[in-house]
Design goal:
Elements (H helix, E strand, L loop, with lengths): L9 H12 L5 H25 L24 H46 L28 H8 L9 H14 L3 H14 L6 H14 L3 H14 L6 H14 L3 H14 L1 H5 L3 H10 L4
Helix pairs in contact: 1-2, 1-3, 2-3, 5-6, 5-7, 6-7, 7-8, 7-9, 8-9, 9-10, 9-12, 10-12
C-alpha cells in the first residue's frame, strides 16, 4: 500500500507561513506579500479538497476575503500587516489540523495493515481432521491446535489413489473413493484439485458434479449450489450436466429457495428431456413434491 497522501508536503506550507510572518511591513512589499498569501490560500484549498472530499469547511473556509482596505493614511501599512498576520495564523492552524488528521489516518491504516498481515501469515493446518490455530479473540489468547484423530488419519491413509497411467482418471477415482467412504472434506479437496488440473478430461463433468454432491452431503448446500451450477454452465454437454441440475435443485430446496428449485427442475426437463423421463424421472418427481412445484 502506498503511503497516505504522499504528495502532501507539510514542511513546504510551514516554511511559506514562517516566511510570510517575518515579512517586512514596508508598503512596497505589501502587494507582493498579499499575492503570496492568496496563492498559499489557494494551495491550502486544493489540499483541503484532496484530504477532505466533499467541500467540508471544517478546517478552512472555502473563500476568505480580505478585510476592506482602510483609506490611505498613516495606519494603512499597519492594517495590511495585521491582515496578513491574521491570514497566516489561519493558514498555520489549518495546516496543523490537516497534518494531525493525516497522521491519525496513517496510524489507523497501519493498524489495519498489521492485522491483515497477521491474518495472512496465520498457520492453517492441512492435515486431515486437524483444526488450525484460531485467530486472536482480542484478549491475547488463541485456541490450541487439536491433535488429528488417529482413526480418521488411518482411514484416509487406507484409501489409495489408483495408478492406471491416466492421471485425470486416477484423480477422479481417488476423489470418488474418499466421497464413498464419507470423508467429505478430503473428497472435496481432491475433487477440486482434479477439476483444476484436468479441466478437459473426459471425467471433468463427473468430477465437478461429484464435488457438488460432496458439499451437499457435508451439509454445505450453498457451496454445493455454486459447484453444481458451474458444472452445468461450463460443461452443458457433459455426461453429468443433467445430474448437476437435479442436485442443484436439491441444494436450493435445502436453502429454502423453492421457487428457484422448481425453475431448475423445469429447465432440466426442457434441456434434457430423455434423461428427465428416464433415469432421473423418480428423483425429479420427488424434488418437485418437496419444492411444491405446480
Amino acid at each position: 500500500m502506498k503511503p497516505v497522501l504522499s504528495f502532501l508536503s507539510p514542511a513546504l506550507f510551514v516554511a511559506l507561513s514562517l516566511s510570510l510572518a517575518a515579512a517586512s511591513p514596508a508598503s512596497a512589499q505589501d502587494s507582493n506579500v498579499g499575492k503570496r498569501v492568496e496563492k498559499l490560500e489557494d494551495q491550502m484549498r486544493a489540499v483541503q479538497r484532496k484530504v477532505f472530499p466533499g467541500g467540508s469547511s471544517r478546517y478552512f473556509e472555502p473563500d476568505i476575503a480580505p478585510e476592506p482596505i482602510a483609506p490611505a493614511g498613516p495606519s494603512t501599512t499597519s492594517s495590511a500587516v495585521s491582515d496578513l498576520i491574521s491570514r497566516v495564523d489561519t493558514l498555520e492552524n489549518s495546516l496543523a489540523a490537516m497534518t494531525g488528521q493525516v497522521e491519525q489516518n496513517s496510524h489507523r491504516i497501519k493498524q489495519l495493515e498489521d492485522k491483515l498481515a497477521a491474518a495472512t501469515i496465520a498457520p492453517v493446518s492441512t492435515t486431515p481432521g486437524v483444526t488450525g490455530t484460531s485467530a486472536g479473540t482480542g484478549t491475547g489468547t488463541s485456541t490450541p491446535t487439536r491433535a488429528p484423530d488417529p482413526e480418521r488419519v488411518n482411514g484416509v491413509s487406507s484409501i489409495i489413489m489408483p495408478v492406471s497411467g491416466d492421471p485425470g482418471e486416477d484423480a477422479y477415482i481417488y476423489g470418488y473413493r474418499l466421497w464413498e467412504a464419507k470423508y467429505y472434506p478430503e473428497a472435496q479437496a481432491q475433487l477440486k484439485k482434479a477439476a483444476e488440473e484436468h479441466p478437459k478430461h473426459r471425467r471433468a463433468s463427473f468430477t465437478k458434479n461429484l464435488l457438488g454432491r460432496a458439499y451437499l452431503d457435508d451439509g454445505k448446500p450453498a457451496l454445493a449450489a455454486i459447484a453444481l451450477y458451474e458444472n452445468y454452465q461450463e460443461l452443458p454437454r457433459g455426461e453429468r450436466a443433467p445430474d448437476s441440475l437435479y442436485y442443484l435443485s436439491t441444494a436450493l430446496i435445502a436453502l429454502n429457495k423453492k421457487t428457484e428449485a422448481c425453475q431448475t427442475l423445469s429447465e432440466l426437463q426442457d434441456v434434457y428431456p430423455d434423461v428427465s423421463s428416464g433415469r432421473l424421472s423418480a428423483d425429479i418427481a420427488r424434488n418437485k413434491k418437496s419444492a411444491n412445484c405446480k
